[in-house]
Design goal:
Layout: H1 8-16, H2 20-42, H3 45-61, H4 72-92, H5 100-107, H6 116-134, H7 138-149, H8 154-161, H9 165-189
């Protein structure tokens, strides 16, 4: 099966019959999206890679349980989400390191282009945003990442999280409210 003529339902059915090449097509199609979803949730490059790969392994082992009518990524995301939340729960028992995303943004200051002060201020703002995101509850952070960073529609988020669209809208409202409160603390501290 060639990846140019991708039919997800047929690909899933082939995977369920043991076709590893078809599963490779699914992995190739969704690996970048999976990595960025995990990175957004855990904030660490290495762990995001590990967790997204582990989720693909677990999905492969359970592919026969997937209803071929269902979208693969929606089903896969539940596996990835559980792994990421388990990682975060276990990590919270230990000291929390500074987010890798924030560190990377600080390292990208381009002092040879444009105004260094403006660049620093932008990076500090990004830093504050990521710090505030890190302080949100995992489900609050997740819904903000899905909507505002990955640009999923309310319908897609409802499918991914397996809840009604109204619930997505409500959760997003309260998550944004919580994020705003955390960002206001940073603004008021300056």
């Amino acid at each position: 099966m060639k990846s140019e003529s991708f039919d997800e339902q047929t690909t899933i059915l082939l995977c369920q019959k043991g076709d590893k090449e078809s599963y490779g097509i699914l992995v190739e199609k969704y690996m970048k999206r999976a990595y960025f979803s995990a990175l957004g949730l855990v904030g660490n490059h290495e762990y995001a890679l590990d967790l997204s790969q582990e989720a693909f392994i677990r999905a492969y082992r359970s592919i026969r349980k997937l209803d071929p009518e269902r979208k693969f990524y929606t089903w896969y995301y539940q596996i990835l989400r559980n792994l990421c939340f388990n990682y975060l729960r276990d990590r919270s028992r230990r000291a929390r390191p500074f987010s890798e995303l924030s560190q990377r943004q600080l390292e990208q200051i381009a002092d040879d282009e444009g105004d260094v002060i403006v660049s620093l201020e932008k990076d500090q703002l990004k830093d504050r945003l990521w710090e505030a995101l890190e302080k949100l509850k995992p489900d609050e952070k997740e819904i903000i990442l899905l909507k505002d960073f990955q640009n999923h529609s309310y319908k897609e988020i409802a499918e991914i999280l397996e809840c009604p669209t109204g619930t997505v809208m409500s959760r997003l409202y309260y998550a944004r409210k919580s994020l705003k409160a955390k960002l206001e603390k940073y603004v008021n501290c300056q």
